[in-house]
């Protein structure tokens, strides 16, 4: 066991260092466009340091027009780490280094959790090339570690701790909210309706307790995150942006995006109820998040950090690794395609045209769909002895 923990830490540190090397050009020569795109080392960490007034320690939700575009806990991390910046050095580099160190520690913690939850496949997370390429783009790892911890605890029937962590995760990045759907399905199929109500109340209550001080004190700044997401158009990386490049403009994009997600959620609902046995959250969480990011109006390169640990939890046998690597390769193609397109978009002499970038988006989506279908086809999920005993006792009760 100690050896496994040590190997998890070692691989995580190796991944963090490799990612740091990828971003080191911008770290040494600055993050100005187009060179940060040419060298694929763009990061929101230094970009938002001055753009959101963090270099002057401005409260991140004080402005209705320039508040940070993230839920409160991410904003607090962004603001708190600004106080650790050494002003006698390059402030942008110092801010990046401080946050990168914390993200590396979060990666280590996430890998250790995955090792416990999926001991046969955990190593894929620190070895995943798209994860290494995207690690320091944004603060997403703060939500990733709490989301996978919530999944792990849920599958251990520790619902209270899981609900608390899921509420924290939703207050950090909003995407984990879609995990409430598979949680509801699983508890409903277990005839644990009281537990479901308690879980929903505790997770939503935790989210509200974190958000309420911001809603009361700086409501317009707090609301900017929701406003931006509701008013944005077809943004980078989305199927909608790719379609627009090929002159296929989607009317009423908000409605259409929501409708596509709802159709996908209904299909997911039916899928979960047609499984022969009750799935674990780890087995199905990947699918609902994949549906969510595919229907979304934006797909940032770091979203692969959300998907990869959930994909690992969904793996069933070693044969699944081939489709996993195909999907990772497609994510890596997209990762470099967006930066080279933005380089061209920003006036660099080299880059790729819009249609090549849009094609990379479609390749990524196709690979994600292929990987998801491969996993779903294997989800016969035979009933294990513990679940069989649970179902018998529930039926007798």
Strand percent estimate: under 5%
The number of distinct helices, counting runs of at least 4 residues, comes to: 19
Low-confidence stretches: 380-397
Q: Determine the N-to-C terminus distance.
A: 39 Å
**Describe the biggest sheet?**
none
**Secondary-structure-derived class:** mainly alpha
SSE pattern, N- to C-terminal = HHHHHHHHHHHHHHHHHHH
The chain-level mean pLDDT equals 93
Number of beta-strand segments: 0
Helix content: over 70%
What is the alpha-carbon Rg in Å? 21 Å
Coarse shape: globular
Describe this structure in words.
There is one protein chain. The chain is mainly alpha-helical and 397 residues long. 71% of the residues lie in helices and 0% in strands. The protein has a domain at 48-83 and 156-396. The radius of gyration is 21 Å and the shape is globular. Mean pLDDT is 93; it is low at 380-397. The protein has helices spanning 2-29, 35-38, 44-51, 72-82, 91-117, 124-127, 129-134, 141-155, 159-170, 180-189, 193-217, 219-231, 239-245, 253-274, 281-295, 304-314, 320-345, 354-377, 385-396. Helix 10 (180-189) packs parallel to helix 14, helix 13 (239-245) packs antiparallel against helix 18 (354-377) and helix 15 packs antiparallel against helix 16 (304-314).
Please render the helix and strand layout as text.
Elements (H helix, E strand, L loop, with lengths): L1 H28 L5 H4 L5 H8 L20 H11 L8 H27 L6 H4 L1 H6 L6 H15 L3 H12 L9 H10 L3 H25 L1 H13 L7 H7 L7 H22 L6 H15 L8 H11 L5 H26 L8 H24 L7 H12 L1
Helix pairs in contact: 1-5, 3-5, 5-8, 8-9, 8-16, 9-11, 10-11, 10-14, 10-15, 11-12, 13-18, 14-15, 15-16, 15-18, 17-18
